[in-house]
Write a structure and sequence with these properties.
By secondary structure, the protein is α+β, with helices and mostly antiparallel strands. The protein is 33% helix and 25% strand. The protein has four helices and five strands, in the order E-H-H-E-E-E-H-E-H. The protein has a five-stranded mixed beta sheet with strand order 1-2-3-4-5, with helices on both faces. The chain is globular, with a radius of gyration of 13 Å.
């Protein structure tokens, strides 16, 4: 189940970031929360296992990034669910832009959304 995270979840998001060798800092995450929304999944123990951030700019453009899925939860469609969720929350008139790393680019070439 996808949930909307809050700034109370920053420490857990930092754990996910470090596990997957991303370099988000606490300050980075505060900035993201101040300008957008962060969604993701938790496992049965309550640990965050995936994340995505969506930042809306002037109700015209949205930037989607911070797509992280914990290694042992990959290949279950979690990132696809998150991308679909983000796109469904946006108005059809909004242009959505994905911020992806070179390593993750192949995951988005074939869209299922």
């Amino acid at each position: 189940m996808i949930e909307r995270f809050s700034e109370k979840d920053i420490k857990d998001l930092l754990v996910l970031s470090k596990l997957e060798k991303w370099d988000y800092s606490e300050a980075d995450l505060h900035t993201i929360f101040s300008s957008g929304d962060v969604f993701g999944h938790r496992n049965e123990k309550g640990n965050i296992v995936s994340s995505v951030a969506v930042v809306l700019y002037k109700n015209q453009s949205a930037f989607i990034g911070m797509v992280i899925v914990r290694r042992d939860y990959r290949k279950q469609g979690l990132a696809w669910q998150l991308m679909k969720h983000c796109l469904q929350t946006l108005c059809p008139e909004v242009n959505a832009y994905l911020i992806a790393t070179k390593e993750g680019e192949h995951l988005y070439k074939k869209s299922r959304v």
